[in-house]
Write a structure and sequence with these properties.
Blueprint: H1 11-21, H2 23-36, H3 48-85, E1 90-99, H4 103-112, H5 123-140, E2 157-165, E3 173-180, E4 189-195, E5 200-204
Parallel strand pairs: 3-5
Antiparallel strand pairs: 1-2, 1-4, 2-3, 4-5
Helix pairs in contact: 1-3, 2-3
Length: 205
């Protein structure tokens, strides 16, 4: 199946997918920072000193909270739009299925756990964290890591499939990574796939 530029994910959608893949980590880091700086969590007015004190102890929590909210809202809009576009999908017959949900566990171990011991009241460690996140994002948007999202895997299944387009007399087999709400996705069944980008598709029965 050829890639349509109109179906390619825009940067906003990619950003939302990336951020939501890190929401579990962000939540843990926010709770840790609030716990560590609890003695500083009181109203001190709008003075320059109080603002600096707040940002030094809770600045990262504020940033991560805003990013999480932005990502979650963005992913809700994205999923709503994808469901609306499924009617424009291609009818296919799936011939082979491989489950990719277990990759979310490896993602957590590799990209989330190492940050749990960071001290974000230290601006040096905060800078390193931001740099690493930007680096991972640049890789994420150019690879199949887009499919690995621990938050989405709660509701959606992530699968690698081989399929044939119904009506294609040549019977050519295609490969695709799909995200679906269908927990009973089966081989030798007909489905409708909507192409999101060159390798990722959304599906319904």
């Amino acid at each position: 199946m050829k890639t349509s530029n109109n179906n390619n994910l825009k940067q906003g959608a990619l950003f939302s997918l990336f951020i939501t893949s890190y929401v579990p980590l962000f939540f843990i880091l926010i709770v840790e920072q609030l716990n560590d700086g609890w003695d500083y969590l009181y109203w001190g007015g709008w003075s320059e000193e109080s603002i600096k004190c707040f940002l030094s102890h809770f600045g990262m929590s504020v940033m991560l909270s805003l990013l999480s909210i932005t990502g979650i809202v963005g992913i809700i809009v994205l999923l709503h739009n994808l469901k609306s576009n499924l009617k424009n999908g291609t009818k296919v017959k799936v011939t082979k299925i491989s489950n990719r949900n277990n990759e979310a566990i490896g993602y957590i171990a590799t990209y989330i756990v190492p940050f749990l011991t960071s001290d974000f009241s230290n601006w040096f460690e905060s800078s390193i964290f931001i740099f690493v996140m930007v680096l991972i994002y640049s890789i994420y948007t150019k690879s199949n890591m887009i499919l690995i999202n621990p938050l989405l895997s709660i509701k959606y299944s992530m699968l690698e499939v081989e399929y044939m387009v119904i009506g294609d007399k040549a019977g050519v087999t295609h490969d695709a990574l799909i995200i679906t709400e269908n927990k009973n996705f089966k081989e030798d069944e007909n489905y409708q796939l909507y192409q999101i980008n060159s390798s990722l598709k959304n599906s319904q029965a």
